[in-house]
Specification:
- This protein is mainly beta.
- It folds into 2 domains: 66 residues, SH3 type barrels (Roll), CATH 2.30.30; 74 residues, PRC-barrel domain (SH3 type barrels).
- The strands form 2 sheets. The chain has a 7-stranded mixed β-sheet with strand order 11-12-7-8-9-10-13.
- Strand 5 and strand 6 form a beta hairpin.
Length: 166
């Protein structure tokens, strides 16, 4: 006969696997399919989420997990990988490209790097504040500003040089 668990702070893998992973916006990212353990330190280091048909699995480090609830795993921040590959649409519904990279500064999403056929140099940067909505697609605000990746790099290099001169 199995002993009943007495410590309510301890859970088993069975109580995590198959649960939905919910981001801070309340969106379901998918279902937890794997648990990752550091075998040397004997600690949980992350989970893998199955994001659905034709989407890649998403690894989430334990630092992104807020808590393991009864029915779901709650995340404390949105993993930036969630956005990679999403289609980017203008406010009018025109396909502008896809999210290639996410630029993070001070633990916050700053910009998206977008790729597509109709774009300057094939790639450009969109400031997070120019995004109207994120769901199954990224929808840009009407008067969004797009800056080529090359121009953005030059701007950042100028800023770094000014800081060095101080």
């Amino acid at each position: 006969m199995a002993k009943k668990r007495t410590n309510k702070n301890i859970i088993t893998c069975d109580e995590i696997l198959g649960k939905e992973a919910i981001d801070p916006d309340g969106s379901s990212l998918g279902v937890v399919t794997k648990i990752h353990l550091d075998k040397k330190n004997k600690k949980l280091v992350g989970i893998t989420i199955d994001m659905g048909f034709m989407k890649p699995d998403l690894y989430i480090g334990i630092n992104y997990v807020k808590n393991f609830g009864i029915d779901a795993v709650f995340l404390k921040k949105v993993p930036p990988h969630k956005f990679k590959g999403l289609k980017v649409l203008s406010e009018g519904g025109e396909l502008m490209g896809k999210v290639k990279e996410i630029i993070i500064e001070n633990k916050k999403v700053k910009e998206f790097e977008i790729t597509g056929k109709k774009l300057l140099d094939g790639r450009y940067m969109i400031d997070y504040s120019d995004i109207k909505e994120i769901g199954d697609h990224v929808i840009l605000k009407k008067n969004h500003k797009k800056v080529s990746k090359k121009k953005r790099k030059k701007e950042k290099d100028k800023e770094k040089n000014k800081e060095k001169e101080k």
